[in-house]
UniProtKB/TrEMBL annotation:
It comes from Candidatus Magnetominusculus xianensis. GO terms for molecular function: phosphosulfolactate synthase activity. This is Phosphosulfolactate synthase. Keywords: Lyase. Belongs to the phosphosulfolactate synthase family. Coiled coil: none annotated. Its EC number is 4.4.1.19. Pfam families: ComA. PANTHER family: PROTEIN HEAT-STRESS-ASSOCIATED 32 (PTHR48413:SF1), PTHR48413.
Amino acid sequence: MSLKLPARIQKPRKHGITAIMDLGLPLGYLEGYLKDYNQFIDIAKFGIGSAYIVPFLKEKVKLYKDFGIEVCFGGTLFEKFFNQTSIDRYCDYLVSFGVDWIEVSAGTLSIDINHRIEIIGSVREKYRHFTVVGEVGSKSPKAADLMTDTQWIDEIKRLKDAGCAYVIIEARATGTGGIFQEDGTLRLNIFDAIVESYDSKDLIFEAPRHVNQSYFINRFGANVNLGNIVPNEILIVESLRQGLRSETFFNTLA
């Protein structure tokens, strides 16, 4: 007899996405890891600008894509190129590694939303094969404290209207920035305002901690989009999605 579990959308998925944060997985390890767990992973993000210095980057990108996993170099590297060179050079850099997802963010730099919208428009015009994702929220808790729910909602709307496939809700790799306060507490009033205004299928919630993951799964179901997942915890996250851990044991939402 089979267990009755929440129905998981199968790959290739438009929602129910799991995006891992690759911060130094060795190439040899990665191949074995993906052979076992590729069915649970949709996007691999090279976080904190690490894509610029990681060894065997081209080989790693190819390996991910061979297993049907999209690759993104994240927002920090985008902001570094924005600050020091140009967005065109960053796009050419992505193309040189066969990466066709680009994240436009303002997590470290204060890049006005109007400027980000201009960048998105330019990228979509010049690099039509790119999938563009936007991010809302600052990595700095102090800056995040100043963002009102109206600002969050407005930025999400403008990013979606500009053609972003998804809007990422910032949380940092630690779950202590963006939509979360410095102590890891969810900014619930802002979060509630966001999800009352937008379909969660259009959003990717950064959720590096189990308490974050279980909250989002219990609220939206097994097929909520989750980002910044630690690679060696991918089986824990999928178990949470399918009600196989105590925190989501009684959740039947698909």
